[in-house]
Every structure is written in C-alpha cells, then in structure tokens.
Amino acid sequence: MKFESLDFTEFVPPKSSLEIAPVLELKPLRSHLKYVYLGANDTLPVIISSQLNANQELSFVNLLKQYKKALGWTMADLKGISPTICMHKILLDDCHSCWDIIRKNEVQRNYKIFMSHQRSMYKHRKQEEALKGLQ
Fold this sequence. Notes:
Elements: E1 33-37, E2 45-49, H1 54-66, H2 96-134
Antiparallel strand pairs: 1-2
C-alpha cells in the first residue's frame, strides 16, 4: 500500500479572530439573552443572560475578555485542529441530504426486519400445512 504525502508548503495558516475579527451574522435572540462584544467596534460577540445586573455583567465581560483566547469564533481559533486535515462544511440550516440518508438507512433496516418476519411466518405456515397433510 502506497500513500501520497500531503504538501503543506503552499498552505498559509489562517489568522485568528483576535488578529482579524470575522464578520459574523448575528441572529435575533430571545428576550432573556443578549449579545456583548469582547473586541473593538462590536467584534467578537458572545451571548450572555440579559437578567444580569450591571455589576455582574461588567464582571463577567471582563472575565471573558481576560480569557478570550480560549474562545473560538472560527476554525483558526480552535487550537490543535489543523484546517488542512479537517476541513468540512456543517450544514445547520438545510441538512435535507443528511436526513435523506438517515431515512433511507432506516427504511432499509425496517424492510429487512419486515422481510425476515415474513419469511419466518411463511416457514411456520408451511410447517403447519405439512403437519395437517400428515394427519
């Protein structure tokens, strides 16, 4: 068995979100949640409870800012995962093809179960008919 080596000479690692903030599409939140931003110019959003008082919110945001290197907004922010090895798209909004595959597998499995049950019933009937014929 022969394997090709991966060429990493052309690969330029992506910049982390702390260096170049990504443009993210923020979705409306429920009333008990709100966005706060850890970066300048409303960048690096995080979701927190809107029920915190001003002092709690300030303390929590300062804590998050202190450890914002631990948070990940993009794949480049996740330490230990090389984008060259693991690059795929996760379909969150429209994953019909995933569900189609799951349904197809489930239908095939149920069909196999049904057919094995039908076969055993057929064998049982044949045995009953054979016994009736002997009597």
